[in-house]
UniProtKB/TrEMBL annotation:
Main location: membrane
PANTHER family cross-referenced by the UniProt entry: CONNEXIN (PTHR11984), GAP JUNCTION BETA-1 PROTEIN (PTHR11984:SF20)
Protein name: Gap junction alpha-9 protein-like
Organism of derivation: Microcaecilia unicolor
Matches recorded under InterPro entries: Connexin, Connexin_N, Connexin_N_sf
GO terms of molecular function: gap junction channel activity
Source taxon at top rank: Eukaryota
Subcellular localization(s) per the UniProt record: Cell membrane
Length: 245
């Protein structure tokens, strides 16, 4: 139920938006896919403390001490944190697009209806929100909006850095923790040694593979979209005037 509740605002924002740009629906689609993948992937990790078992006559204190030593890096909390960072990278572009829409509508009102504004800022905002243009859909043209294009590329770069870090965490931090090998534990308070293992390690590895697959897909899309945007909106645009001459 919580997952469905989280999907509703994401899908509603993607569908009901009045300002669109290249790739917008796809990024919101990745938000929904990542949320579904997180929900499924977290299931095998819900009882991680109970899945950590040690052989022999081991006290509960020593078992938990070994557990803390082995899982010294947060798992599910770190997954959710990277998802929040991914949401922020998408919402940053939404903020820039909304500000551009407001400025475009305000300039349109100045040119066609009101002329130069002499009133205060509050009157301007009220006029923009109440005007008919505010209800129409706007498709952002990155050929004309170079500043917004640079911000868009920065958002893609931020997304790429987040996903590369997330992929590194999954493969080099979390996956070795559940590789199925026996765990030899010896702590300061419990010298041991104790022989422990993590139950349901196959399911836990599968959840990491699922998240890694989605992460690799986002990394590829970020590279493709970034390369396409640079070539199409910047390099190609510069070469056209030269060809015309």
């Amino acid at each position: 139920m919580a997952m469905v509740t989280g999907l509703i605002p994401i899908l509603r924002t993607a569908i009901e938006a009045t300002t669109d740009y290249n790739g917008r629906t796809m990024w919101f689609g990745f938000l929904a896919i990542r949320l579904l993948t997180l929900y499924v992937s977290e299931m095998p990790w819900s009882k991680l403390d109970l899945d950590f078992q040690c052989n022999g006559n081991v006290s509960e204190f020593c078992r938990k001490s070994c557990f803390n030593q082995h899982f010294d890096v947060p798992v599910v909390a770190l997954w959710n944190f990277t998802y929040i960072l991914f949401i922020i990278s998408v919402l940053l572009m939404e903020l820039f697009a909304a500000q551009l829409r407001h400025n475009l509508i305000k300039d349109k009102i100045k040119q066609e209806l009101l002329g130069p504004f002499n009133e205060g800022e509050q009157t301007n905002l009220t006029g923009v929100k109440g005007h008919d243009l505010a209800q129409k859909d706007i498709m952002i043209d990155f050929h004309q909006q170079k500043k917004l294009l640079c911000l868009y590329l920065l958002c893609i770069l931020l997304r790429l850095v987040i996903e590369l870090g997330f992929f590194y965490i999954l493969i080099y931090w979390h996956l070795p923790k559940v590789n199925g090998a026996p765990i030899n534990c010896s702590t300061l308070l419990c010298p041991g040694p104790f022989h422990c293992l993590v139950r349901a390690s196959v399911e836990k590895r599968m959840s990491i593979y699922m998240l890694s697959t989605i992460s690799v897909g986002i990394i590829i899309i970020c590279c493709v979209f970034g390369f396409y945007s640079i070539c199409h909106y910047l390099l190609l645009k510069r070469s056209q005037p030269r060809n015309a001459k």
